[in-house]
Specification:
The chain has 299 residues and is of the alpha+beta class. It has helices at 11-19, 100-118, 192-204, 253-262, 273-282; strands at 24-28, 32-38, 41-44, 57-63, 69-74, 87-90, 129-132, 137-140, 146-147, 152-160, 166-171, 183-185, 208-219, 224-233, 245-251.
């Protein structure tokens, strides 16, 4: 998908695109939409503009390689699905994984819907704001200020020591067997690398040397950008802070594989960056034995 940002300010083009027969729309209602299962897997159940109920708000998502336009449409109720079997699902629904294009569209649309739902008034003067820029801007008519969607950066860190063991922790709000990498939000005036070192020290009592950003992930819950790092621990000293982390543990590859296989350790679902960081270090998939496998979980 080409986000075609230059088209967002062209109101005439957007109006014309909405009327075209080849335009497709992703309806959203409270973070949920319809998906359909076909021979190639799950896909978004896109509709035509004329199938959308009145009273919603549309956001321009971009164009595909043929030039067809795509919109999201935030509405109080989802329109009837196109012909074929369809079900209602949300972005985090693991029962119907989407392909890259559809997942990217849903991430984009969900982030915009979340932002618009909570920013109907100007934070400066309190007057109502109006939607512009194809859904990527809200403008206050009273004070003239433009407001843009907010993205909150957060860091996740796969920490290893001199023995190439990785450090995982269980948060105080999780069941004791659920483990993941340390993580936290970047604070104002702080670089992402400084946030890695601060969060590692605060949550796990670990001093960090070199850090390397290896992967990022859009995470619209409601509007975060996850920055995945690998980090080298200066020493093997580690302790849970007792506030965010209930426990932290160093794992060799064999020990972690054994703990996951037996169900003693449950990792986040494979769709999420935290799991991918762990499996990148491990060198392959980490799966529980069938008899010990539980439901996947997310942070």
């Amino acid at each position: 998908m080409d986000r075609a940002a230059a088209r967002r300010e062209d109101a005439g083009w957007l109006r014309a695109a909405w009327e075209r027969e080849n335009t497709r729309v992703l309806p959203l209602a409270g973070g949920r939409t319809r998906v359909s299962e076909g021979p190639d897997g799950w896909r978004l159940a896109l509709v035509r503009p004329r199938d959308c109920p009145p009273g919603g708000t549309r956001y321009f998502l971009g164009t595909d390689g043929t030039g067809a336009a795509y919109f999201a449409y935030a509405t109080g109720r989802l329109p009837a699905p196109p012909t074929g079997t369809a079900r209602v699902a949300a972005l985090g629904d693991g029962d119907c994984p989407l392909g890259d294009r559809d997942h990217g569209m849903l991430v984009h649309a969900t982030a915009l819907e979340n932002w618009h739902r909570n920013h109907g008034r100007c934070p400066g003067c309190g007057d109502p704001t109006t939607v512009e820029g194809g859904g990527h801007v809200r403008r206050c008519a009273a004070c003239g200020v433009e407001h843009h969607p907010r993205t909150d950066p957060a860091v996740l860190m796969l920490i290893t020591d001199a023995g190439d063991r990785c450090l995982l922790g269980s948060r105080t709000r999780w069941p004791a067997h659920q483990y993941s990498v340390p993580a936290g939000y970047v604070e104002p005036g702080e670089t992402a690398e400084a946030a890695v070192r601060r969060e590692a020290a605060e949550e796990a009592g670990v001093a960090i040397g070199a850090v390397r950003c290896v992967e990022t992930e859009a995470h619209p819950f409601p509007g975060s950008l996850m920055l995945g790092y690998e980090a080298d621990a200066v020493s093997s000293d580690a302790r849970a802070d007792g506030s965010e982390m209930a426990a932290v543990r160093w794992f060799t590859r064999d020990a972690l594989a054994r703990a996951v296989r037996t169900g003693d350790v449950a990792l986040p679902d494979r769709r999420y960056l935290a799991r991918r960081l762990v499996e990148r270090w491990y060198g392959g998939p980490l799966d529980p034995a069938p008899e010990s496998a539980g439901a996947p979980w997310t942070e």
